[in-house]
């Protein structure tokens, strides 16, 4: 698989849109287009292999499923993971002759995403630093009463930041990086220690994402019970994600009804006592 300049340009465009305020804020940009699960779909459509793109996106999404950016602190840039890591992972999987639906391919994809995500933090902070210059122009415009220039600062000038730190890096890394990944096929054979190590580390990375998610949602020991129900359904009954989600919805509804009864029970008891009096 090779990536043309046109395809690399489209990937750069989506990398820019993934965090643009003009795309409806972070809800549509960063938290939708920027997520690996959605990025895999977009990359699959652009590169002509929808299945491989989605599978790579799913593998990387598990690692960063609980990624948050408190106070602007970013440990990994999902924008770079989605639109640089996924395309390069797709190229690597094809060049190694792997099936995208195998554990080895998922391990390779997660390793590639982690590498690119760390590099992407530099691009993220570069964008944020340059945006400070536009913000300074905006404050000066407000102080002078020139409110029309605020629209320029909000919707036009940030494109310069994203062109320099999103579009151009994605364009270059996807185009030239694809050739480098393909060249690794001859330098690092599949049965070599380097590739086996890469696959092993990549297979362990989803545990990090799941552990971070558990740390956020588990407060008591009993909270583990509904969490492991999904794994039991998938492993024992071989249910897919849709079936597991429907069953989880049923349990969620029952849990909601029980909680409502706990709230209503004291008020019902008080009413009965008042009637006796």
UniProtKB/TrEMBL annotation:
<feature type="transmembrane region" description="Helical">
    <location>
        <begin position="105"/>
        <end position="125"/>
    </location>
</feature>
<keyword id="KW-0762">Sugar transport</keyword>
<dbReference type="GO" id="GO:0009401">
    <property type="term" value="P:phosphoenolpyruvate-dependent sugar phosphotransferase system"/>
</dbReference>
<dbReference type="InterPro" id="IPR004700">
    <property type="entry name" value="PTS_IIC_man"/>
</dbReference>
<protein>
    <recommendedName>
        <fullName>PTS system, mannose/fructose/sorbose family, IIC component</fullName>
    </recommendedName>
</protein>
<dbReference type="GO" id="GO:0005886">
    <property type="term" value="C:plasma membrane"/>
</dbReference>
<feature type="transmembrane region" description="Helical">
    <location>
        <begin position="76"/>
        <end position="93"/>
    </location>
</feature>
<keyword id="KW-0598">Phosphotransferase system</keyword>
<feature type="transmembrane region" description="Helical">
    <location>
        <begin position="156"/>
        <end position="178"/>
    </location>
</feature>
<keyword id="KW-0472">Membrane</keyword>
<keyword id="KW-0812">Transmembrane</keyword>
<keyword id="KW-0813">Transport</keyword>
<feature type="transmembrane region" description="Helical">
    <location>
        <begin position="198"/>
        <end position="218"/>
    </location>
</feature>
<keyword id="KW-1133">Transmembrane helix</keyword>
<keyword id="KW-1003">Cell membrane</keyword>
<feature type="transmembrane region" description="Helical">
    <location>
        <begin position="224"/>
        <end position="256"/>
    </location>
</feature>
<dbReference type="Pfam" id="PF03609">
    <property type="entry name" value="EII-Sor"/>
</dbReference>
């Amino acid at each position: 698989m090779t990536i043309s300049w046109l395809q690399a340009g489209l990937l750069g465009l989506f990398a820019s849109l993934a965090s643009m305020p003009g795309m409806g804020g972070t809800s549509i940009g960063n938290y939708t287009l920027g997520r690996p699960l959605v990025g895999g779909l977009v990359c699959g459509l652009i590169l002509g292999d929808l299945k491989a793109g989605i599978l790579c996106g799913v593998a990387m999404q598990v690692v960063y499923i609980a990624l948050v950016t408190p106070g602007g602190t970013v440990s990994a840039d999902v924008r770079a993971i989605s639109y640089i890591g996924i395309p390069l992972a797709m190229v690597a999987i094809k060049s190694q002759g792997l099936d995208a639906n195998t554990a080895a391919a998922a391990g390779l994809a997660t390793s590639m995403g982690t590498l690119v995500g760390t590099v992407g933090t530099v691009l993220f902070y570069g964008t944020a630093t340059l945006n400070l210059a536009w913000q300074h122009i905006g404050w000066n415009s407000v102080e002078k009463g020139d409110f029309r220039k605020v629209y320029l600062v909000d919707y036009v000038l940030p494109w310069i930041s994203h062109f320099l730190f999103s579009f151009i890096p994605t364009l270059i890394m996807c185009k030239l990086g694809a050739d480098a990944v393909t060249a690794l096929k001859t330098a690092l054979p599949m049965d070599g220690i380097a590739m086996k190590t890469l696959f092993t580390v990549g297979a362990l990375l989803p545990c990090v994402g799941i552990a971070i998610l558990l740390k956020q949602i588990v407060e008591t020991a009993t909270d583990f019970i509904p969490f492991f129900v999904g794994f039991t359904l998938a492993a024992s009954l071989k249910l897919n994600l849709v079936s597991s989600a429907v069953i989880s919805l049923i349990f969620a509804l029952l849990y909601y009804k029980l909680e409502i009864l706990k709230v209503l029970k004291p008020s019902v008891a008080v009413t009965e006592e008042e009637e006796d009096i």
